[in-house]
Design a protein that fits this description.
With 233 residues, the protein is of the alpha/beta class. The protein is built from nine helices and eight strands. It is globular and about 45 Å long.
């Protein structure tokens, strides 16, 4: 199969994510067909339960299996709260199934010992912290993990006030920066905050998940012109 015939499937919990990821994959995954699957009921269940309930994880696994049945070369789950479902689905298939935050987390563990995690939903904090600890164990690295929630930020985003979302998250970044070597913005929706933080005002790296995830997908697909993620996942 040539590069131009390759297909990846992204599984989202909100249509907002389509625009966020399309700007990146249109740059990196040239000639690749991208299928966006959106299930907003997943996000509603996550918010209602402050975690991803088993029923939501099962639905994600079904979306993964359906994408495979429809034909695809790679599947990505773009919601960090649902990362465990990507791992379950990946065990059932012979194609790559990746969670959006895995490349970002691998970069963070390689960069520093004190790792900060910021999230706007409580449901993301546990899965992201667990992934950070697992990646550190895999390379026998001792780390400290600092986790903090940005109250009100996600509600602001849902209510159509992205500027308030960015202000809340930016303030949390500044507060955490003095305590850690690297900061993870745990949810893909938080990536937009980077443009509101002036260059040089934060002394530690701030990592987001969408671009490293798409770069990693490109690497897996073997795209010659893609920007390589260069991560040992």
């Amino acid at each position: 199969m040539t590069d131009r015939h390759k297909r990846i499937t992204l599984i989202h919990t909100s249509p907002v994510m389509i625009g966020l990821f399309s700007d990146i994959y249109s740059e990196i995954l040239k000639g690749v067909e991208v299928i966006n699957t959106v299930d907003e009921s997943l996000l509603k269940d996550i918010i209602q339960n402050d975690q991803a309930p088993k029923s939501a994880l099962r639905r994600v696994v079904m979306h993964i299996l359906n994408a495979h049945q429809a034909g695809t070369d790679l599947i990505m789950v773009t919601c960090s709260s649902l990362g465990p479902a990507a791992q379950i689905g990946g065990q059932l298939l012979d194609i790559p199934v990746i969670r959006v935050d895995e490349p970002m987390v691998a970069m963070a563990v390689a960069k520093g010992q004190r790792i900060g995690i910021l999230a706007t939903l409580p449901s993301t904090m546990g899965p992201t912290k667990d992934l950070v600890l697992a990646k550190a164990r895999a390379i026998s690295r001792q780390i400290e993990v600092h986790v903090d929630l940005c109250p009100g930020a996600f509600d602001a985003l849902l209510s159509g006030n992205p500027e308030q979302h960015d202000q809340i998250v930016s303030a949390a970044v500044r507060k955490m920066a003095s305590k850690v070597d690297v900061i993870l913005l745990a949810q893909a929706s938080m990536a937009r905050v980077l443009v509101s933080i002036p260059a040089g005002t934060i002394d530690v790296p701030i990592l987001t998940s969408p671009r490293p995830a798409i770069e990693h997908a490109a690497t897996i697909l073997g795209l010659k012109d893609a920007c390589q993620a260069r991560l040992d996942l």
